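Hi L., both proteins are below.
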Amino acid sequence: MRRLPLLLLSLCLHQVAHGAETLPSKLEQLFNAGSFPQFLKAASPRADRDDPEALFLLGKAYHLGKGVEADPYQAMNLYGRAAELSNARAENNLGQLLLDGRGSARSALAHFERAIALGLTEPGVHNARRARAQVCRDEGDLQVCMDVGEDFEAAWKKEQDNKLLDEAIVIYTVACERERYDAHFGAGSKARPDPIPACVRAIELAETGARLGLPRATHNRGAIDYNAKNFTGALTWFERGYQLGFARSAYGIATMYENGQGVPKDAAQALTWYERAAELKDAKARDWVEAYWLNETQLSFDPALLQQALAKLRKLEASQQVLQRVQDNLDVIDTMKRNATAFPLLAQKPLRDRFCPRDPDFYGLQEWRMFAVTEASKLGEIVSELTVAAEGMADEEGCIRFDEKAVKTVRQALAQGNTLVLSWPGRRIMLSASTDSSGKIAFALARPVPY
């Protein structure tokens, strides 16, 4: 089945069975009190004798990592043994692990239904409902989708829990999209009702949620229009969702500006809306914004642009690694400014005629060039645009020897306040310069230069 666009948001909340409504046994009291050494000592021999409660509680210990290292597969094994002995909570928790990615939604549903049959109404009913919802999403079975949509809707009306309304909207929309897909790409012999009942129900419930001021329902109303390529309607609903503080609505608007869907394609507007979504903690938007600013600044040595990027990224609480990549270019600018002041004084000293880069990629008989760069913006230029201060071939030990002419041109470059960049195939590295113990100018590799 075709996957739905990611603009549609659902809630997938599952519950692990922890304790029964009856008073806990002594074994369970040890578990609940966190007395895990005593618990394990008491539970293990009972589990060896196929005691269902001990098997369940040991499974829970491995499931949650309580007193033992978390091991979902050992938890499944223990839950499975307890379930075979008709332990309702083990059935529920086994279903939970399956639903969390270690099995199919249908197999999880079977365990939840057995838990209910054994008397575990809650969280059995709660989890079974969501397992059916996942079956709907995974398999696109229209009847399952309609049944579970009606189940969520009825539960919402009874419990007045708006999360259930949101889930009903999503499920009806999945059914709606499946009907649309079949109408276009299915066998084609079966007439489709127009309007499609699932679509009508999804729209009605989403608009009900929007009238109640529910951000997710408002957004999902826009997602219904977006999926139907009614971009004008989608934009209106996404704007309302954003006004309610819903991050994904801002992301939806950004996507529309990026792709020119219902609005003129506008990179600046797309960036603005991705940044708004990221400020509301949308992870995908933050990734997009980080990638944008890294791309913009990768080869840039414009201080204003770099400072702007840093400010934006710090506001989004970008990772230190991302911030450092931008900061590195600012540091290059600062280094070159210092070089412009310090190197003319240094140039008065004699130059060591041998320099060994000590880089694993710089080996013997390697061809090299040394460029004299006056400003940071020139660092990424093509070779033909750069001033060559010296060039040659490394010796067998991977060291550079400066002949008389090279010594002269390198010292001239330093005297003019230029920064020197050593280049060899695939690498450019800025050099630092200082006086060694003999009072001569010596070079060292400082920092890689992007180009």
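That was the first. Here is the second:
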Amino acid sequence: ATLASTIQHNLFSNMEKYDRVIADNGIKIAPFVVLLGVNAPSVLVEISCISKREEETNLNNPEYRQKIMASLQKGITGYLSQRQTQVVKGENNGKKIHRKNS
């Protein structure tokens, strides 16, 4: 699974329990300027739209924001646990070889 899909799954499934009208708008792929040149898995997460009164009210609630943060954290740690690798120095011109742990 990709970083984006792992975060999306955790965010939506956890927040849906708290906010039943939450929409799953899926994952979009585009050359976002803030992510260009990043040499690592990266995502741009749009959590809410404060121009909608209900969403603004939710975002003003510290407990709601905490649930968002916990969902993002679970998504990131879930991705990292799937992708945990062991760096091994190989015979390949001194380049590092990444090997997934079994």
